[in-house]
Structures are given as structure tokens and as C-alpha cells.
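Reviewers of the previous submission asked for a worked example of the structure-prediction workflow described in the proposal, so we include one complete record here. The input consisted solely of the amino acid sequence. No template or homolog information was supplied to the procedure at any stage.
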Amino acid sequence: MKIFLCFSIVFLAACAAPTIPNKYHDPEMDFASVQTLAVMPFQNLTSDKLASGRVRDVFSNKLLSMGSIYVIPAGETARGISRAGITDPTAPSAAEIVKMAAIVKVDAVITGVVREYGIVKSGAASANVISFSLQLFDVQSQKVVWTASSTKGGISTWDRLLGSGGQPMNDITEAAIDDIIDKLFIN
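From that input alone, the workflow returned the following C-alpha cells.
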């Protein structure tokens, strides 16, 4: 019994790894000053060619539905990208962002990258997963004032035991976006 107790204590201590923060807020930034923003096309590192567009659309709609910030339509953002001459809208430079922001008249610009989107498999189990990161560029200060990442879904113990397919992709996408938005508004 003592051996089991010692083993349990060592095991639990090993599981208690320090958490690494997955967000950054510039303490000098007044986020209430951001009234309008543009959401740039996200960089797509997945095998699903439409993943970044789907995540961008859901994110823009969720942010707009909150009513506290006006997100300019994707067509307006595309017009600004074209007029500013941005060659890679998924990774614009600070100067390109400032130029585009002046054209479409926004206070801030969000860029992002979708790292995982879709089905992951492990043995006989499979489930949906999403992982992405966003950053907010403040046009006035000309610097990144917020970054955050979120990962949702994946194969749970329940999925391994019962062989279920995990949660629907739409549900985990919305959960990940809610997580990111919480990180934006909660310091």
C-alpha cells in the first residue's frame, strides 16, 4: 500500500507542470479605443484549403455579433488589401497594415494562422481538432498589442474507449473562437 501511495504522489507531482500563458495583452493599450477593425485572411497551415476562410468568417461574425466593435466586411478588407498593394495578406508588414488601415479607415487589424483543422486519428479513434493563433495590430501605436491562441477538440479518453468521432467541427470551432474572444476582452 505504501508503494502505491508513493507512486501516486510521484505521478501526480509529475503531472503538475507549470502553465505557459497563451496570450499577451499590452498593458499600455486602451482596448476601448478600438471601434473598427479589419480581419485579414488567415494563414493556412492545414491540408484543408478552406479552413482559414471558415475560421475567419466564424471569428468575424462572432466578434461583430457582440456589438462592441465594428468589423468591416471581408470585401472591404479585400479592397483595402488590393489598394495598399499587399502581396501576401496573410503576413503583412507593419507598414502595409498602416497603409491598408488608412484606406479602409480602421483602428486595428487582426491577423492569424490556422495550424490544425479537421480530423486527427490515433489507432482506431478519431476526432475533430482546431488550433489557431491571432494577433491584434494597433494602427495608432503601430505595434502588436494582443496575441492569443486556442486549441479545442482532439481525441479524449472517452473517444478512445468508445470509438466515438468526437465533437462536430462546427462546435469545436465555435468553442475555440469563444475562448479567443474571452482572451481578447478579459485581461
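Residues 169-185 form the longest helix (17 residues). We consider this example representative of the routine output the project will generate in years two and three.
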